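FAQ

Q: What does a record look like?
A: Structure on top, sequence underneath. For example:
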């Protein structure tokens, strides 16, 4: 499967048509390989408008992710908490926009995969109950709830 073409089609047919048009955000979506964050058996669905499996839960659809990331108005100097970060796709998008990202995940196996996938981005990871939050890193400029 040509994932680069699937990514481009997702952006053109799902994201752009639904009022997500900020050039910086679109560039981040073009540069982020969502298929790496999805269970291998569902990789072909990574760019579909369908909530595919990621570990023991389903991840958000690309359009919902795009709208949520856009609403964060993330950029340099912003501290963003991602609750239920899963394998880190949403956290990666926010970090690529320049935000300092704190990824909170309950499932250690998902967090480990996320740490590995985002190791070069500077995303801060913590595994703990989601309701506990991350008080040592607060205050946050935005909180994105994914799980």
């Amino acid at each position: 499967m040509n994932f680069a073409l699937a990514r481009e089609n997702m952006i053109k047919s799902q994201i752009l048509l639904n009022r997500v048009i900020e050039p910086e955000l679109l560039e981040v979506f073009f540069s982020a390989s969502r298929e790496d964050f999805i269970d291998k058996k569902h990789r072909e669905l990574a760019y579909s408008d369908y909530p595919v499996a990621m570990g023991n839960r389903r991840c958000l659809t690309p359009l919902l992710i795009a709208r949520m990331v856009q609403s964060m108005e993330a950029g340099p100097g912003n501290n963003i908490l991602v609750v239920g970060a899963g394998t880190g796709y949403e956290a990666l998008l926010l970090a690529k926009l320049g935000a300092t990202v704190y990824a909170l995940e309950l499932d250690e196996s998902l967090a480990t995969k996320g740490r590995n996938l985002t190791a070069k981005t500077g995303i801060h990871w913590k595994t703990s109950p989601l309701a506990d939050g991350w008080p040592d890193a607060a205050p946050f400029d935005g909180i994105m709830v994914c799980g």
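Q: Is there anything notable about this one?
A: The longest strand covers residues 100-105.
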